[in-house]
Specification:
The structure is a homodimer.
Chain A (H helix, E strand, L loop, with lengths): L1 H11 L4 H8 L8 E2 L5 E6 L6 E5 L5 E5 L2 E5 L1 E4 L1 E2 L4 E5 L7 E9 L2 E3 L7 E4 L2 E8 L16 E9 L4 E9 L13 E5 L8 H4 L3 H10 L7 E4 L31 H16 L9 E6 L1 H12 L6 E5 L17 H10 L4 E7 L5 H13 L5 E5 L5 H11 L6
Parallel strand pairs in A: 15-16, 15-17, 17-18, 18-19, 19-20
Antiparallel strand pairs in A: 1-2, 2-8, 3-6, 3-9, 4-5, 7-8, 9-10, 9-12, 11-12, 13-14, 14-16
Chain lengths: ~400, ~400
Amino acid sequence: MKKIISIAAVMLLGLSANAQQAIFGKPGIKSPEINSDGTVTFRYSNPKAITVQVTGEFLPITKMDTPFGKYDAPGTADLKQDKTGIWEYTTTEPVKGGFYNYYFIVNGQKTLDLNNVFVNRDVSSLTNILLIGGGKADLYKIQEVPHGTVSRLWYHSKTAGFDRRITVYTPAGYETSKRTKYPVLYLLHGIGGDEEAWITQGRASQIMDNLIAQGKAKAMIVVMTNGNIAEEAAPNENATGYCVPTMQLPKTMEGTFEESFPEIVKFIESTYRTIPQKKARAIAGLSMGGFHSLYISANYPDMFNYVGLFSAAVGVSDTSVSPIYQNIDDKLRIQFEKKPALYWIGIGSADFLYASNKEFRTKLDANSYPYKYMETDGGHIWRNWRTYLATFVPLLFR
Amino acid sequence: MKKIISIAAVMLLGLSANAQQAIFGKPGIKSPEINSDGTVTFRYSNPKAITVQVTGEFLPITKMDTPFGKYDAPGTADLKQDKTGIWEYTTTEPVKGGFYNYYFIVNGQKTLDLNNVFVNRDVSSLTNILLIGGGKADLYKIQEVPHGTVSRLWYHSKTAGFDRRITVYTPAGYETSKRTKYPVLYLLHGIGGDEEAWITQGRASQIMDNLIAQGKAKAMIVVMTNGNIAEEAAPNENATGYCVPTMQLPKTMEGTFEESFPEIVKFIESTYRTIPQKKARAIAGLSMGGFHSLYISANYPDMFNYVGLFSAAVGVSDTSVSPIYQNIDDKLRIQFEKKPALYWIGIGSADFLYASNKEFRTKLDANSYPYKYMETDGGHIWRNWRTYLATFVPLLFR
């Protein structure tokens, strides 16, 4: 046993030089630390720093000035330096259950908490993650339940002219139940997102695992596409190499992706054991993905029986760029004549798209098109989209 | 069109507040920038910084003092501040093709280049990634070739008593060729690693895609296990929640993982279309994974026809902790009597395990056990392990 221990010490030398520096070069501080009373302590080691702050969605919201007006931003709190040079801040209240993004600001400059290796990218921004269980957040945690499989595969897009990456969740039991066929939810991201967004920021695989294990959702396949048709795959997952993710990709919201959607459905249904019928297909998306879901389901009224619009970018289509966006009132009439099993709309009361969603609902109401509606507080944020997914999914394929 | 553009601007408001801050709060600097002459420029915006350095494996190696002696560390270079407050450094030479880890040091403190969202974790250390094509590194790039599927799934380990996560690469065509059966390479990580290591730092899926597309490797399935039997999954992919990844996990290198290996093979062969025969099974691993490969293949001599030891931790077993490690000379004799198709050893001349590997080769030589040997420069580093994988894989299943 002694031999193994000494070897383990020697094997530290066997790390890549970077990993070694991390071990030899830093004190072993813990950050974040979830305390027994539910508060959270953040620590940062930098004796030379002048100011250190933490900013995250668990701190009270502040109003931020932007070129487009005031906007809710996560609050900040100051870390204080102790005698040993370690900076520290403990929240004044227990942190409520949630999946939070946060980072440090050192001398006014954004930096990550490098003691926490749990990091997500949202568009072009990296942040640390803090996941606190309790309440709805228990759905976002990895629990001791059967887990589905998450696969990244590539389909050939005739529309795009190249192979494109797609993320697919298959529920626990898919591999062992060799004959069972499953319904499919197509789950679309927002502008700036890609086929990774619902997995990283959306916690889709955890939400599905937990809802299915609790018997609250049917076992289903979830297909997370990349809605930027000009793009092969998420940043650093495609052949262009190093890039800065941007919001403004070509061919976005000009009809091509929506028009190409049947090739995605065809690929999924020839690759996985699906029930290839309208009754077993759902489509939902957030923001631009809600816009996509609206137009795809209206243009292909025999394809989807369940539609979910999460903070959807309704009312922004340009009819001059694609026939996909034309005659939407006629298309909706035909879609609703076919009586979809569920048309679901969710929006936050502080969302900048609240008014346009209200206008859209007024149109549905005027035509007596039935839909379910959920209004939450907060704005155009992932917290809401996780809530909408967890609310929408139990209604599917009943 | 105008409408869409204005909407896109409005939709910036629709980002999570963190992503917004990234867009509104930072100048649009590019870092890293690969220049047309092959040099690379790094930039960092922090007017208040006193010193800014970049450290990475593309800079000349320096000797670093550690508790265990001197060790090769990546070099560092100083960034200089320009009039606008942006810090900048351009390499003096073109950077050779390679997959490099790097980060910044600001006022002596490690920080990431937050303009580069390409970040990897190695054990408990986060670093930025710089991937420069050319030479061997072209194998590490995502190329315009057919891509395999990478799946994360969970198998039930009777040995551990819980479900465990496993990463599986299936080659391009697996989904469409509904009947083809494939050989399998089991690919094991080192101490401190997990089922993600070969994908993130090892570039295994890119290496496989490219070698298969070039006709240099057979289409095969690659199974990347988690060799820490006490662990369900990689950090933040398991139910323990937030944790600091450590090197020293319980039940590591005490025989349990090696003993449990048949349950992994059984799971893979009942889940995927494999050729369930010795002739179609290979096992290889780096460092601790090489140690595992040695003992698993010797204890189950009818299981693997191909064995790869990459910088393997040979000669460190403690025979008192498990029968797996006992009578290894007898086990090797039986293994070699059965004439494995390939026994492959790779090591760097500067590796701290060089001497123990030499001792092991001397034993193989003394017994006239045939093996192939590759010696590279450098130490116990991922650069070597990517090279060994790319060299080993073309020799399999011929």
